[in-house]
Amino acid sequence: MKGIVTVLGRDSVGIIAKICAYLSERNSNVLDISQTIVGGYFNMMMIVDLSDSSEPIAMMASGLETIGRDIGVLVKLQHEDIFNAMHRI
Amino acid sequence: MISIDEVRETIRMISESNLDVRTITMGISLLDCADSDEKAFRGKIYGKITRKAERLSRVGDEISREYGVPVINKRVSVTPIAIAAAGCRCEDYVEIARTLDRAAREVGVDFIGGFSALVQKGSTPEDHKLLASIPQALAETERVCSSVNAASTRSGINIDAVNVVARIVKDAAMMTKDRDSIGCAKFVVFCNAVEDNPFMAGAFHGPGEGDCAINVGVSGPGVVKKAIEAARGADFETLCETVKRTAFKITRLGQLVAREASRRLGVPFGVIDLSLAPTPAIGDSIAEILQEMGLEQPGAPGTTAAIAILNDNVKKGGVMASSYVGGLSGAFIPVSEDHGMIEAVRAGALTLEKLEAITCVCSVGIDMVAIPGDTSADTIAGLILDEMAIGMINGKTTAVRVIPVVGKQVGDTAEFGGLLGSAPVMAINHFKCGDFVRRGGRIPAPIHSFRN
After folding, report:
1. Angstroms from A41 CA to nearest CA on chain B
2. Distances in Å between the alpha carbon of B118 and those of A89, B190, B193, B441?
3. How does pLDDT run across B332-383, given as a tens digit for each residue?
4. Are strands B144-152 and B187-191 parallel, antiparallel or unpaired?
């Protein structure tokens, strides 16, 4: 099972590091990262392999939200299927 | 591979345009609960509902968290009680309504539908018992929704039932007069009622359904509005295409959630209902879509055409996105639940007659409309009869959910709170129709019901 992590907010030092640390502590492998920074706004998407994760996706989603709040950005983790369903036939 | 732009589009739909799954409704058959002892029957239905729907709320919340999409309501619909309770020896069905209310509270759903009777052609003594119990049931329960099917394209219109229903509306209004007659907000009368509708107040689990099914209502007026903003000034081809593409995406989301809920609950997937349903929130309004299309206010000339193309394209996009489409799949214009419609009524743009005209194309009915409390039962019967006739002749579902707000007049506002919103009291034609509706009997089935 794959999850999509998205981060949106003002750029600051260590955003990716904090999120990756959280994911690796829960045995979740980052498969792909893409990011853009426009006008100081940080916009990132990560595709994460959750098949061997030590925590259920709902719990990790709320954990990542908390990290986001601490550093002042919006972080979401969602099951990949929602995007596949909406954008692929 | 999904691109960052596609991911952002979905997230924006959810966070900025109120995209959500409006309801996961579990339909539960109560046919196997039949018992001549009313107390035993109540014990069985309570047991079955709480057993089947025990995990409904929790599963809805789980899916919501995992996919990051709000699932607003979790609801239950049951076999029409007039059928399920037909074998019970009892005077009335009010106690059964209380049992449904308790079961709904126990499983954490905000509404349970199915305190209903199907009387389009005739009524049994049990149907009469149910009809007589409706006003008290609505007044004394919080979550029970009730509906009556009084007409169909196949059978015609049961005028006797329409007259009884008009009386029910008046009585329910009176019995809940201290709460702006809110009892009527939980009651709807149909022509061509559908058996798998997930939306309240008209949801019931039809006798042709299986033991249990998951039906899902998706929504997203805000998303459609946002999408057509980008097509401002473009021709109708572009407008229709935009609505269609958006509806496809919205429905795919509903399909995903429905499949997942069905899998996790171990209950077959029934249908996706393709209806655009508003909520009182800003940005979640059908009226705003009409304005974005180019109408100053809903009710302006062109409104009927706008609603027609809106809903036709929602269906065209949605049908492709889901394996089973059903339910009402029409435009909902519940006036009290759409801030833009409320404004249009206040501005004098939207009248009851225009709302009736819209039901000829796609709208499902005169929905959540407050009328003066002193409106007579005959006038309400006339209004219902007009809607039933539109449904019967056009072979579509139509419905009436009106609230004659006791003690209020045109210009006043009825406050229902929460999802039911607030309704400006609308003017209704005061010329009499009593001698017409009180002829009674049945209107024969229309000529195009003979299709065989």
Report:
1. 14
2. 40, 9, 9, 16
3. 899 999 999 999 999 999 999 999 999 999 888 999 999 999 999 999 999 9
4. parallel
Residue B267 — left, alpha, or beta (φ > 0 → left; ψ -120 to 50 → alpha)? beta
List, for residues B30-48, the tens digit of each pLDDT value. 999 999 999 999 999 999 9
Provide the token pair at B422: 């607030």
**Identity of the amino acid at B116:** S
Those residues of chain A whose CB sits closer than 8 Å to some CB in chain B are 4, 6, 8, 32, 34, 36, 43, 45, 47, 57-58, 61-62, 76-88
CATH of domain A2-87: 3.30.70.260
Rounded to whole angstroms, the Cα distance separating B139 from B401 reads: 16
CA angle B333, B207, B274 (to 5 degrees): 30
Q: How many separate helices (H) and strands (E) can be counted in chain A?
A: 3, 4
Give me the CATH topology for the region B23-191. Anaerobic Ribonucleotide-triphosphate Reductase Large Chain (3.20.70)
- pTM, two decimals, is 0.93
Best CA proximity match to B401, nearest among B170, B121, B169: B169
The alpha carbon torsion through B314, B316, B318, B322 (nearest 10 deg) reads 160
- β pairing state of B442-443 and B156-158: antiparallel
